[in-house]
Amino acid sequence: MKKLIPSLTLLALLAAACSTPPISDTGPVILASHSILADVAREIAGNTVAIEPIIPDGVDTHSYQPTPQDIARISNADLVITNGFGLEPWMQTVIQEEGFSGTVVEATSGLQPMMETQDETDPHFWMDPILMMQAASNIEKGLSSLLPENKDLYASNLGAYTAELKSLDEWIRQVVSEIPIEHRLIVTNHHTLGYFAQQYGFTVAGTILEGTSSESGLSSKHLQDLINLIIAKEIPVIFIEPTDDANIAEQIKEETGVRIETGLNTHSLKINGTQISYLEMVKQDVELLRSLGE
Ligand SMILES: [Zn+2]
Fold first, then answer.
1. Residue 63 C-alpha to ligand 1 middle, in angstroms?
2. Is the CB of residue 72 less than 8 Å from the CB of residue 66?
3. Ligand 1 centroid vs 153 CA: distance in angstroms?
4. What is the CATH number that goes with domain 8-170?
5. Intra-chain end-to-end CA distance of the chain, in Å
6. I need a labelling partner for 71 at 20 to 30 A (CA). Which of 2, 145, 198, 287 fits?
7. Among 277, 18, 262, 49, which Cα is nearest to 147's?
8. pLDDT truncated to tens, each residue of the chain (294 aa)?
């Protein structure tokens, strides 16, 4: 792969020399690409070890580039939990070129990606709690292999967390059953709910941006097609996230009268300054979608 930043090594050395000390002076260093994976990993690890996200909450996950401090942390880590499905293309570069000697656990290992285009994979598997069960199992294997003395605890915590994911899944199915099928049409800013929609019988009718990334483009033809679709299908609401640019949604609102719901959160566990769990994030999103049935 093409080297992302020519002087990664130098930057890492500089960062190592002047940054904060490692997360733990005694235990292993475990990092996860983003806070959702870190939250799931903490559920399994309990209080045996610290797990920190690399991409901070509230920062655009798709356009993120590692800082010199991140590169130093990754180089020094014993275990890195990645998302996979094309979310963090920079990770491979850092791991291959920066002296990383730890273990990589890909959360999506064993899962089948949804293809957005022939070459583009949809990374948002985490919005489907059933797929998260497999990811949690992958993470448990990685933790148990790193810290075998805790493997019974990790297996037990995985069992408890899987039960919570199962309860969440059953609750979502109950909520969705109350939404008439013809109302199960979702419009979001970028294509974040593909896996969720497939699991729970929704259709992603359209997205403001033309793809699975917040960096995806937008053409005037795409915008006009979306406006026509919202009118034709009488779609009542567009779901956008606090970090999204609301200007285009406002433009669509002016043309169609559609309502804009800004409370969707699919990438961050920090909402208005409050830290929530992955389970709470999904639950809040489903509560928002409930309005489609009204
Ligand atoms: Zn996204």
1. 10
2. no
3. 33
4. 3.40.50.1980
5. 49
6. 145
7. 49
8. 334 444 444 444 444 444 444 444 578 999 999 999 999 999 999 999 999 999 999 898 999 999 999 999 999 999 999 999 999 999 999 999 998 999 999 999 999 999 987 888 999 999 999 999 999 999 999 999 999 999 999 999 999 999 999 999 999 999 999 999 999 999 999 999 999 999 999 999 999 998 777 777 778 899 999 999 999 999 999 999 988 889 999 999 999 999 999 999 999 999 988 999 999 999 999 999 999 988
* Global confidence as pTM: 0.89
Centre of ligand 1 to C-alpha 213, Å, is: 5
CA 19 to ligand 1 center in whole angstroms: 29
Could you give the CA distance from residue 210 to residue 212 in angstroms, rounded to a whole number? 7
Q: What's the CATH number of domain 180-293, 2.60.40.10, 3.40.50.2300, 3.40.50.1980, 3.40.50.300?
A: 3.40.50.1980
Backbone torsions φ then ψ of 236, nearest 5 degrees: -85, -20
Q: How far does residue 271's CA lie from ligand 1's centre (Å)?
A: 16
Asked if the domains at 8-170 and 180-293 fall in one CATH topology, the answer is yes
Ligand 1 centroid from CA 241, angstroms: 10
